[in-house]
Amino acid sequence: MRHIISVRDMDRAAIDALLDAAYEIEARRYNPQRLAGKILALLFYEPSTRTRMSFESAMARLGGSSVTMGSVEASSVAKGETLADTIRVVSGYVDAIVLRHPKEGAARLASEFSSVPVINAGDGAGQHPSQTLLDLYTIRRAMPINGVRVGLLGDLRYGRTTHSLALALSLYGAEIAAVAPKGLELPSGILRELADRGTSVTEYSAIEDVIAGLDVLYVTRIQRERFPDTASYLDIASSYRITPELIGLARDHLIVLHPLPRVDEIDPRVDAMPNAKYFEQAHHGIPVRMAMLSEVLA
Ligand code: NCD
Fold this sequence. Notes:
Largest sheet: 5 strands, parallel
Mean pLDDT: 97
Helix content: 25-40%
Number of strands: 9
Strand order of the largest sheet: 7-6-5-8-9
CATH architecture of the largest domain: 3-Layer(aba) Sandwich
Bound molecules: N-carbamoyl-L-aspartate
CATH topology of the largest domain: Rossmann fold
């Protein structure tokens, strides 16, 4: 049984195979009934628009169907059911489970109690592998990933998308510039892992200082929901913003990515610039998640 929990479990060949499969799907070379008769459970203990809807749509496009737990308040979670019990029960109803949960490690725990494959759709500040695959897919459509210079900007402390992406980029010889407001730097554990993998990471506090040398700028929102209180969030909110003027300092081929949702970290005037790839990036969630579902379910 194949779970997809963390980028740490994947080597470059496994990632490349999924990206190639997504490419074939985007070129419409796939069997639209490949997952006919299969059922996917969507268990989201945290808000989601893109991840939930694109998994659901991906499943439908492969002939399968989805069932959802609905909101936490509307489910037995509200009665105090443990994650382990929910997973034990739901895995008897379906062929695979997509799980998003506020606690780091939740998806790994779920995989230990599940009789069907589990895909991690975000575990607290931990990992978000399907997002990483679509991020890499978007980069690869624009330029070779090998040796790419990527600036990670924003909440690198709590932003699980940056943790997953940084680890995956280390498989491609990427150089990473980590640009974070004070207090939101990449966790030391991730920095150590990247160093062990031989990845060059340089830390900056201002994007202006590094944008001219980047191929990819990966912007993230401050993860307000992970802050201990509103005051500490407000201290940091709005401390960076991508504008057309700022992009003017970059090389022409720079692409700007964002996992979305954005709050105010990208000026809407950037949307019309050829560098802005974040909406295309979100759309790549369909072929990439179709490839993932095919891999774990077919
Ligand atoms: C991200 C997440 O949930 O980690 N959203 C997403 O899946 N595209 C990013 C975020 O919420 O900021």
